[in-house]
Amino acid sequence: MPFEAKFPPGTAPGLLGEGEAMVICKDMDFPDTIRKDAHAGLRLMAVPAWDSDADAWIHARMAVLRGVENGFAVARAASHGLLTASYANGRLIAQKVARPEQMDWILADLPLGPGPTLYTRIGNVFPWATLGLTLLLCVVGMSASGDLSDRFGESRKSATGPQAALRRPLIRTDSAPARRNGRSPARCA
Question: What distance in Å separates the CA atoms of residue 123 and residue 116, rounded to the nearest whole number?
């Protein structure tokens, strides 16, 4: 949301100990910040948040995504948003819409996540490598098609020159009789 742009991500880890950590609201939108916490063996993330009605769903899903990326369960309590409990594989254990006029809560048996994942260790290496490979293939494809268009362009130009005879049709369209071995064909009377 544009009005949230003024809030920078947190800079210090929110580690609580024993594989548990806490970050607030918007910090879950910054994968690099969360990945730093996850390197410490994070298995459960508690997230107090204050959403607006416009961004409630997307902020709740960003928190679930961070849990999947880094192998931890997420317990998220949001005012004006969604209270969620999600396992490290992204499965929602519980979800409830928070109503501003009362105190809402969810109760869920939320197992701890397995801990750091491959994404936690390598970060965005795979997406960047995929992008680089795609660009490389585009460049190679364009250069190869450029060579082919040059060849076709040259052959079109030479179609009026001395090679034009090679491109004439093989089927005779004139009415003259065909000759075989230098002789005229026999005529039947």
Answer: 11
Q: Is the pTM of this model over 0.70?
A: no
- Give the type of residue at 156: R
* Mean pLDDT of successive 10-residue stretches along the chain, which has 189 residues: 64 74 83 84 89 83 92 90 91 86 85 91 90 93 68 52 55 57 56
Each domain of the chain, given as residue ranges in start order, spans: 2-122, 124-153
Strands 20-22 and 44-50, bridge-based pairing: parallel
Pick the CATH number of 2-122 from 3.40.980.10, 3.40.50.2300, 3.40.50.460, 3.60.110.10: 3.60.110.10
Strand order in the sheet with 73-79: 15-17, 20-22, 44-50, 73-79, 82-86, 92-97
Helix intervals (H) in the chain? 31-38, 56-70, 118-122, 125-158
**For residues 7 and 27, is the Cβ–Cβ distance under 8 A?**
no
- Give the CA angle between residues 105, 73, 35 to the nearest 5°: 125
